[in-house]
């Protein structure tokens, strides 16, 4: 079953396009828009619909595979892996006060993203 997730990219952002796609897949899994066993669009199909190079989509899919979010299966394409179904509710709950504090401090999304990435790399 092919699940249609609304994929959006913003070429003006500093974040690479493949990373934007991978982040959206993570978000779709966290929200329940993608479930274990769901198929992602074929790389060529997604690339054409977003006017991207197919290698950009393949790089996103490879990153998702390396992170255990998807399995790449010959003949079946990219399928959401069982490991992707981790319970993210504690993380989602922790985000609310973080976002509130960032808004109160007038911190942009980009700066907050950098701060979170730095914290994750410690």
Automatic annotation (TrEMBL):
Q: Which PROSITE patterns match?
A: HTH_GNTR
Q: Which UniProt keywords apply?
A: DNA-binding, Transcription, Transcription regulation
InterPro entries xrefs: Tscrpt_reg_HTH_GntR (IPR000524), WH-like_DNA-bd_sf (IPR036388), WH_DNA-bd_sf (IPR036390)
Where would you find the membrane-spanning parts of this chain?
A: none
* SMART domains (alphabetical): HTH_GNTR
Domain HTH gntR-type: where?
15-83
Pfam family name, one: GntR
Name of this chain's protein: GntR family transcriptional regulator
What molecular function does GO assign, one term?
DNA-binding transcription factor activity
Q: What is the lineage of its organism?
A: Bacteria, Bacillati, Actinomycetota, Actinomycetes, Micromonosporales
């Amino acid at each position: 079953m092919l699940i249609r997730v609304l994929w959006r990219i913003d070429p003006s952002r500093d974040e690479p396009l493949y990373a934007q796609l991978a982040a959206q897949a993570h978000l779709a899994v966290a929200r329940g828009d993608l479930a274990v066993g769901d198929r992602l669009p074929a790389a060529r199909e997604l690339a054409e619909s977003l006017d991207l190079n197919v290698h950009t989509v393949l790089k996103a899919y490879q990153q998702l595979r390396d992170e255990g979010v998807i399995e790449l299966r010959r003949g079946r394409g990219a399928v959401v892996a069982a490991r992707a179904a981790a319970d993210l509710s504690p993380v989602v709950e922790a985000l609310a006060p973080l976002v509130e504090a960032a808004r109160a401090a007038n911190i942009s999304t980009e700066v907050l993203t950098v701060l979170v990435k730095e914290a994750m790399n410690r």
